[in-house]
Structure formats: C-alpha cells, structure tokens
Amino acid sequence: MTSAAEVAAVLRERVLSGEFAPGERLHQAPLSEALGVSRTPLREALAQLANQGLLVYEPNRGYEVRAFSAEEIVGAFDVRSRLEGLACGLAARRGLSDEALATLRTCIAEGDRILSRGVLVAEDLEPYRRMNVDFHETIIRGAGNPFIDDFVRQCHNVPLASDRVFVWERHDVIWRSHDDHHRILAAIAEREAGRAEDLMREHVYFAGRILLRTLERSGNPRLRAV
User: Fold this and answer.
1) Where does residue 146 rank: exposed (0-12), middle (13-18), buried (19+ CB within 10 A)?
2) Residue 43 and residue 34: Cα distance in Å, rounded?
C-alpha cells in the first residue's frame, strides 16, 4: 500500500465501519506507523477524505472524524433507500448475469449460516458485514447505471448511514433484515422490477429506523448535533 488512493480506501473503510468514531482525532505519526506508509501519501489521503466530507480539518489541530446530526443521518438513509430501490428495480428489469445471481445466492447462504446459531456472537459481525456489503454492491453494479453507484457512495459518507454499520444486538432484528435479502433476490431472479424496488426501499428504511432508535435510546455519543 503506497499510493494515496490506497491509503484513503483503507481509512475510509475504517471510518465507515465505526473503527474510527465521530469526533476522534487522527494523528499522522501513529497512523503512518500503523499503516506502514510515509507521511506524504497519508496526508494526501486525509485531504481526500476531508474533501469527501468524512473528516474535518482544523489548522494547527489536524483532522478529526466528522460527526453527523440525527437529521443528516435520516436524510442520508432516505436518499439511500430510494437510490438502492431504483438500482434493485433496474437490476431486476434488465436481468442479472449468472455470475451476479450466483454471488447473491452465496451471500444469502452465508447469512443463513451465520444466523443458524440462533444467537448473535461478536465474531460473526465482521463476516455478516462483508456479506451485506457484497449483496448490496452486487445489485448496485447490476443496475448498469454508474451514477447510482456514485450517489450511494456519497450517502455512505455519512458513516451511520453506511451498509457497514449494524446494531448487532438482537437476533430477531437481524433475521428479519436477512429475510429481506431472500425476498429481494427472489424478486430480482423473477424479473419483478416493481416488487424488487419496493422491497429494497423498505429494507434500507427499516435498517435506518432500527439504528436511530437504538442510538437515541442508548444516548450514544456517535449521534449528536453538529
């Protein structure tokens, strides 16, 4: 990993996954050492993430992870649900390749395997997260419209509205969400565009409401006014 783009990709994933929390200051010296990169590509990467709205730069203080208000998170989920619903409908209408359908089926099987325990355990969060990202990104690519991909990525720049974030607490809630994956795949495979779009919109909307209710109930500092 030597280029600024590669460093930015790694840092972006850590912000979106919540590894770097809102308000956390990113110090260049320890970051440079941890990532095994020189200061030059690191500075360029931090500047890129600031331009994308993920970080905030203050002169003489450096970069910190941007915090978002509840209203901003709701707005990002609202836009994301419509964009991903549109992508899902387009993917169903035009038809996915056999390879893409196989990827979605693999995702479904992985989610089923993880949830078959009947309880949520900490070590399953990361594989479930990867599965979910693969599922959503496969559908977005299958829509065949690069503008949707670009705009969804902008929504993900509000970290709590990212598909990397889960409230990993209740098995029944995660199972309900994963059951959506089953029904979404079935609608896409049957080329039912309208149904696929509606299912995806509700799927993303539900995820947003669960997340916000949990954060508000817990008084989590990741949800605050800016």
Assistant:
1) exposed
2) 14
| Cβ atoms within 10 Å, residue 194 | 11
Domains of the chain, start order: 4-65 (1.10.10.10), 70-218 (1.20.120.530)
DSSP the chain: --SHHHHHHHHHHHHHTTSSPTT-EE-HHHHHHHHT--HHHHHHHHHHHHHTTSEEEETTTEEEEPPB-HHHHHHHHHHHHHHHHHHHHHHHHH---HHHHHHHHHHHHHHHHHHTTSS--GGGHHHHHHHHHHHHHHHHHHTT-HHHHHHHHHHHTSGGGSTT---TT-HHHHHHHHHHHHHHHHHHHTT-HHHHHHHHHHHHHHHHHHHHHHHHHHT-TTB---
Query: Mind listing the pLDDT tens digit for each residue in 106-136?
Result: 999 999 999 999 999 999 998 999 999 999 9
- Which residue's entry shows tokens 């209203």? 71
pTM: 0.78
What tokens does 220 get? 């989590």
